[in-house]
Amino acid sequence: MIVLDLFAGPGGWSHALAVLGVRDIGLEWGEWACKTRASQGQLTIRTDVAMYPVWPFLGKTTGLIASPPCQAWSMAGKRLGLLDQPLVHQAVADLATGRDTREQLLPACRDERSLLAAEPMRYLHALNQQGQPEWVAMEEVPDVLPLWRQYAAILRSWGFSVWTGILNAADYGVPQTRRRAILIASRTRTAEPPPPTHAKAAEPESLFGPGRAQWVSMAEALGWGATDRPVPTVCAGGGPGGGPEPFPSGSRKTLTDARDRGAWKPQTTPAEAKSRRIKSGSVTPHAVQECCGRGVLGRACTGEVGWSWSLPSNNQANATVRRADEPAGTLFFGHRANECVWVSEPAPSDTDEEPTAPESIRITAREAGLLQTFPADYRWAGNKGQQFSQIGNAVPPRLAAHLLAPHLGKTLHPDDFTLAA
């Protein structure tokens, strides 16, 4: 029996299945994603999912996984998929009855990738004629939730139990507050989301449940202990082609340089840090976010240095900024404005010194992979831009494993994902 993985990418679902002792067959078109999968020994058919026939999988498929490309829907892109929603809904409705109207609908789409979100229904309709698959798991950006609800209504009419909703990856031990629209369906069990294992604040065990650990921080995921110092080097390069250096050559530094100066200091607890700032009458988290987003630090921001996390968007002033003792924001890559950098965040000071520019240091592919819960030795193919594109679009394996374990009759153990090496 086959677990079929549509739009398999660089192996987020596949690695989760490997942890659980199962293999899938991935359908993927991207050259570098296929090479990454090959380097990990994952079974892959390099093909256009929209063109590949379903008949080879009929009568053989126990589970279907789908994470259609999200560029047309993502906050990081132009979001033309939202304008194409009526066309995508029409394609899904037609495919559910065996009518293939994709060729007629495609010319009207503002983004040709939008209809890819309807492709899983083509496979599901054909497989359903054979009473398969037994279960379905699908993942996309939050704006796709209405489409997942349409899928859910159709699957329920075929005898599936279905759950749809938004899950936060941080609630499952991923060091990243990545929110995703999820669909879970099953013919044999009640579909429901996996119970969260983590929370923003740790919850002790009680009569009402086993309790939850605190969200995993970036520092913890990267192995920065109480006395350890970060040592990854600068990661240069831009979009798919690598791109020029983002900073003047004279300003490029590495985290090793920062370590040698003693700049990295593991944070105290968030409550202590907040209390210290309030008592000093200096910077609020919002002010730090604005300062870092603009590329300069305000007058009250000078002083001792620690490390923050910056995820610049197209509007730099609205960048997501997280300290190393917090989970990352959603990782997404693809063009220069959406790349991630480490930014030095000075502690509060009462001096009237002139503002100084923060140090900006590029995140490495290894770091980004760890924050997606890929292992440290995962072999990413391609240049820096191609690697980052794969990482940003991947499903966090740890989240995927929590979603899949119940369908496979497996138990996920806390030590099944060792992040930092």
Describe the fold and architecture.
The chain is α/β, with parallel strands linked by helices. Helix 1 crosses helix 14 (397-408). The protein has 14 helices and 13 strands. Helix content is 29%, strand content 15%. The protein has 2 domains: 2-211 and 392-416, 3-Layer(aba) Sandwich (Rossmann fold), CATH 3.40.50.150; 233-363, no CATH class. The protein has helices spanning 12-19, 31-39, 80-83, 85-96, 102-105, 119-128, 145-157, 218-221, 255-260, 270-280, 285-294, 365-371, 384-393, 397-408; strands at residues 2-6, 25-28, 43-46, 61-66, 135-140, 161-168, 179-186, 198-199, 213-214, 305-311, 320-323, 341-346, 360-362. It is globular. Helix 1 links the parallel strand 1 and strand 2. Strands 3-2-1-4-5-7-6 form a 7-stranded mixed beta sheet, sandwiched between helices. A 4-stranded antiparallel beta sheet has the order 11-10-12-13, with helices on one face. A two-stranded parallel ribbon has the order 8-9.
Topology, please?
Layout: E1 2-6, H1 12-19, E2 25-28, H2 31-39, E3 43-46, E4 61-66, H3 80-83, H4 85-96, H5 102-105, H6 119-128, E5 135-140, H7 145-157, E6 161-168, E7 179-186, E8 198-199, E9 213-214, H8 218-221, H9 255-260, H10 270-280, H11 285-294, E10 305-311, E11 320-323, E12 341-346, E13 360-362, H12 365-371, H13 384-393, H14 397-408
Parallel strand pairs: 1-2, 1-4, 2-3, 4-5, 8-9
Antiparallel strand pairs: 5-7, 6-7, 10-11, 10-12, 12-13
